[in-house]
UniProtKB/TrEMBL annotation:
It comes from Oreochromis niloticus. It comes from the Eukaryota. The keyword Glycoprotein applies. The gene is LOC100694824. Its main location: membrane. Residues 39-239 form the Neurotransmitter-gated ion-channel ligand-binding domain. The chain crosses the membrane at residues 240-266, 273-294, 306-330, 440-459. This is Gamma-aminobutyric acid receptor subunit pi.
């Protein structure tokens, strides 16, 4: 009973396919387009819903590509748009005919034939060109080989690593896969290996050059089975000349412009502040403009961001240098005034000492001239000076021990004295020397940082 039911199902499917084929042929005849006798003989009994070699193993499909153009490569969307000529070849034993010439058919007759269900794996959006008619080519050879070509424009995803942008290299792929037929039904292969893809040598891209390309064959594993897959790899290298002229040279010149303030006098406050603030604001605008054309959703720290950050740091450092030099100028003037005050105070003390010494000598001379009076009794003050507890009167009274808080105060004062000595070591004797040092250290540091930057991002 089960066999009869399955046999009835197959018969029903074959009957429906025959009816559809006859309806298509009748439609062609109704439109006044009579098929050639050879095509009519080939189409007689042909079932396009069954693949070639349905019961005799998988059908092998050869692929080749022509890259007509790569229109855009977007870092923001991480994809590229390309127009390709996709050519597929396979052998269908039902289309064998006598003769030595191939048959080139109208592209609309492809609806009467079985074709592979090939699709582009990472395609975001694709369309088949249809101006002035659908850009399809169908050609049948006497041995039953079918050539099927399409012109397709597709937008394909490409995962990019922008860490070294704009000195980066990106490897993108174009993957072709069968949608419904697994490896037991269809096998894909490149017709000429790496030479199966052509057109890349003549491409002219805006920011990139194609360095290398190669092909590979793999299998896609899904829950529904193993499917054939062909992969075309191509490596793109970004041209850095545009970014050197657009970003690197202007940012470097802004850094050099900020060094002009080192040759301006410290007293010219408006001139130096104007140069510092202008270069900082211009560098900020340049950084914002460089980031507008790059993706903001990801967390890439790009090479161009590092360089712009370095330039901004040097420009901001030049502005801070003037603030420090100007502050040292003010403190240096106060120190001069304070030193002058200390010197005047010492001079006054010295004059007071000289006057005191002169008056002391004159008093002694007067006392020598006066007769000395002898007194028989000892002064009371002398008696009071002798301690009553001392029997001899010659031992002095013991002094009291210093309090503990006095030792603590001395320790604090010693610590403060050490701190003041350390600060004095960093004291700038002449603030004008800061500009002299900056004229050498800033350019030298910038050259060293540039050497390290370009060496790392170009060779590592």
């Amino acid at each position: 009973m089960a066999l009869s039911v399955s046999g009835g199902t197959v018969f029903t499917v074959l009957l429906i396919s025959r009816l559809l084929e006859s309806s298509l042929l009748n439609a062609e005849v109704k439109e006044g387009e009579i098929l050639p006798p050879t095509i009519q003989r080939l189409m007689k009994g042909y079932n396009k819903y069954l693949r070639p070699f349905f019961d005799n193993g998988p059908v092998t499909v050869g692929m080749s590509l022509d890259i007509a153009s790569i229109d855009t490569i977007s870092e923001i969307n991480m994809d590229y748009t390309a127009t390709i000529f996709l050519r597929q070849r396979w052998t269908d034993e039902r289309l064998v005919f006598e003769g030595n010439k191939s048959l080139s058919l109208d592209g609309r007759l492809v609806e009467l034939l079985w074709v592979p269900d090939t699709f582009i794996v990472d395609s975001k959006k694709s369309f088949l060109h249809d101006i002035t008619v659908e850009n399809r080519l169908i050609r049948i050879f006497p041995n039953g080989t079918v050539l099927y070509a399409l012109r397709i424009t597709t937008t394909v995803a490409c995962n990019m690593d922008l860490t070294k942008y704009p000195m980066d290299k990106q490897t993108c792929t174009l993957q072709l896969e069968s949608w419904g037929y697994n490896i037991n039904d269809v096998m894909f292969y490149w017709t000429r290996g790496n030479e199966s893809v052509s057109g890349l040598d003549s491409l002219q891209l805006a920011q990139y050059t194609v360095e290398d390309h190669y092909t590979s064959v793999s299998e896609a594993i899904y829950e529904t089975g193993h499917y054939p897959r062909l992969v075309f790899h191509f490596e793109l290298k970004r041209s850095i000349l545009y970014f050197i002229l657009e970003t690197y040279v202007p940012s470097s010149l802004l850094v050099v412009l900020s060094w002009v303030s080192f040759w301006i006098s410290l007293s010219s406050v408006p001139a130096r502040i104007c140069i510092g603030v202008t270069t900082v604001l211009t560098m900020t605008t340049l950084m914002m403009g460089a980031r507008t054309s790059l993706p903001n959703a990801n967390c890439f720290i790009k090479a161009i961001d590092v360089y712009l950050g370095i330039c901004f740091s040097f420009i901001f450092g030049a502005l801070i240098e003037y603030a420090v030099a100007h502050f040292c100028t003010l403190t240096h003037a106060d120190a001069h005034m304070l030193m002058y005050g200390h010197r005047m105070h010492d001079f006054d003390d010295e004059m007071n000492g000289i006057i005191t010494t002169i008056s002391t000598h004159s008093n002694r001379a007067k006392r020598r001239k006066e007769p000395t009076a002898t007194s028989p009794s000892v002064p009371a003050s002398t008696e009071l000076a002798v301690s009553p507890s001392s029997p001899s009167g010659s031992e002095p009274k013991p002094e009291a021990a210093p309090p503990e808080h006095t030792n603590w105060c001395l320790t604090v004062l010693a610590t403060l004295r050490k701190i003041l000595r350390a600060i004095y070591c960093c004291h700038v004797e002449n603030p004008h020397h800061i500009d002299n040092y900056s004229r050498v250290t800033f350019p030298l540091s910038f050259v060293i940082v540039n050497l390290l930057y370009w060496t790392y991002y170009l060779y590592f």
